[in-house]
Amino acid sequence: MGSKQMTEMLKGTLEGIVLAILAGQPAYGYEITARLRDQGFAEIAEGTVYALLVRIEQRGLVDVAKVPSEKGPPRKVYSLNAQGRTELEEFWKTWSFLAERIEQLHRTDAAPQDTATTEAGE
Amino acid sequence: MGSKQMTEMLKGTLEGIVLAILAGQPAYGYEITARLRDQGFAEIAEGTVYALLVRIEQRGLVDVAKVPSEKGPPRKVYSLNAQGRTELEEFWKTWSFLAERIEQLHRTDAAPQDTATTEAGE
DNA sequence: TACCGGTACATAGCAACACTGAATACCAAA
DNA sequence: TTTGGTATTCAGTGTTGCTATGTACCGGTA
């Protein structure tokens, strides 16, 4: 992965992904990056996650607590607040709206396609 | 809709949407815009579509034919070529990868949440 | 004729976002 | 001391969709 397509597709969705992760439980940047990697997003740069966290903090979607770490500099633990949960709900609505229409296009335009295409194989 | 979230989410997906439309049959810009509106994307600006068409043409994903119109200036009819079909397949792969993980997050993090209606809504 | 509205395309300037690459800081083990 | 894992930050870049505007073609109408 790590394609340009993925990079562009993550715009707008990565924020929702992180909010959803934080909805499960508070977390700090380094941890979120690691969790994203575990979930298959191997190519998301650390700097991207930190910049995103700064943004959602400035927009008041999360509360922040500085917690000392045994292994390095202090962690900034982010937790979703009420405004963040509202934003997350909005995200799911927007996502569902878009996903429904795209899936419909997928079905429609994949219909003439079967297993192996005969014409113009590539 | 027309939210800022939707604007960001369309980045990276709108191109795929248009490619999918063109996979069905050739079309020109004004027509594509109209079709998008029919499919619920009421807020997509005309200029956005035209700019996108310029881009995918320059990247060699489509062939173009100028066709006279009875009602206005000549139409630029775009048709998906082999390279465009390859790009569309890539798009579906990237989309599926992303959609699967986001849907999983949706299931996971929507579990403790309860909105107005019961959670077993569907 | 002059004007309006629908059709059809194009573009300059802007805002938002993810990525690259580098720097900083803390600590433990080699 | 140096290496490596932990943890955060930031300047600069490229891509994208939106706004706003302009151009062009045509039929109908006052």
Automatic annotation (TrEMBL), chains A, B:
Coiled coil: none annotated. It comes from the Bacteria. Pfam families: PadR (PF03551). Residues 18-90 form the Transcription regulator PadR N-terminal domain. PANTHER family: PADR-FAMILY TRANSCRIPTIONAL REGULATOR, TRANSCRIPTIONAL REGULATOR RV3488. This is PadR family transcriptional regulator.
